[in-house]
Amino acid sequence: MVLNNLHRFFWYPAFIVVVLLWVDAFASFDDRGHLYLGLGTLILLVNAVLLSAYSFGCHAFRHAAAGPRLLLLLPGRQGSLAALARRHRLQRPPCRLGLGQHVQRGDRRGLHPSPPGRDARPPPPGEMSGRYQTRECDVLVIGAGGAGLRAAIAAAEAGCSTLVVGKSLLGKAHTVMAEGGIAAGLANLDTPDSWEVHFADTMLGGQLINNWRMVDLYSREVIDRVYELERWGGLFDRTDDGLIMQRAFGAHSWKRLCHVGDRTGLELIRTLQDKMVHTPGTDVLMECTLTRLLTHGDRVCGAFGYLRNTGELIVIRAGAV
Ligand SMILES: Cc1cc2nc3c(=O)[nH]c(=O)nc-3n(C[C@H](O)[C@H](O)[C@H](O)COP(=O)(O)OP(=O)(O)OC[C@H]3O[C@@H](n4cnc5c(N)ncnc54)[C@H](O)[C@@H]3O)c2cc1C
Fold it and tell me: Is 259 in the pocket of ligand 1 (CB under 6 A)?
């Protein structure tokens, strides 16, 4: 704690230096009883003024107040000093990590501006203006990338009517662009590999700021998911023995990347789309941007958005989103 705040304590010796500089500056005006003004006196004066300004300026002065640790030397951290401390925090508060982050950010984003001539003001809270269509389903899946498609398959297999909504065309998600491959500790080429090593590599690669529970789930479950893709028709590159080929990748201790040349994402989304459209109970709504989650009490019960090719508004009611 003391080491961490060491630089702050240098503010106190600066007092002594400032006093010495002023004594020096005043002394330089005295030429054996006569007032003297030369380049040297000016330099000393400017020097004292500048260091005083810096030491007692807002930036440096906050060190007297900012760190609660400095209470050791400055017990009365009240009033204006406390106000100064509040305005100059030691560091920014850490970002909250969570699954809801993207949704929340999207929720705050505004709709596209209304065309000229229309009233761009939003309707009062709780009211809807204009015409809109309504759809209903048991499960609404927002996003038709790898995550959304796999979730939709699971929901439909559980017997739910499932609507997958994507703001682009089916197949046009980031997933399709993944080139490197799917990291999974299959240990097909490097036998010491395992989900545990995969977990450790991922946490270290993420400088330990990863959501460890997500990493834990991913590294454990991805092995089954890769074999599942294979069962559903995904064609991975093969070793001579017919196993799924794996290659090296950044931050991986062992060869771990299951791939299909440099078009793994394309094969992944092709396989999942194929599986989804052949799973009874699924439906897809393309080019529909959802802008708001709808809630009933503290439960999400649907979403609101617009169809991109017509601009028509849409409300989707769902048992789960
Ligand atoms: C160039 C590139 C290379 C990559 N390489 C690799 C790799 O080698 N290995 C690897 O593991 N990962 C790789 N990644 C990362 C990986 O592709 C993504 O993390 C993963 O595909 C994300 O899948 P997803 O389903 O969550 O999202 P996405 O595939 O991005 O799907 C998001 C879906 O949500 C829809 N959507 C978004 N907002 C809305 C809205 N408001 N309303 C309605 N629908 C909406 C989109 O239309 C889309 O269908 C790569 C990514 C890129 C871009």
Answer: no
With the most atoms of ligand 1 within 8 angstroms of its CB, the residue from 153, 175, 252 to mutate is 175
Q: Tell me how crowded residue 182 is: count the other CB atoms within 10 A of its CB.
A: 24
Evaluate: CB of 142 within 6 angstroms of ligand 1: yes
Q: How far apart are CA 190 and CA 292, in angstroms?
A: 46
pLDDT band at residue 95 using 50, 70 and 90 as cut-offs: very low
List, for residues 257-284, the tens digit of each pLDDT value. 999 999 999 999 999 999 999 999 999 9
- The conformation of residue 238, written as its DSSP 8-state character, comes to B
pTM flag (> 0.85) = no
DSSP calls for 186-205: --SS-TT--HHHHHHHHHHH
Assigned CATH class of 104-108+130-320:
alpha beta
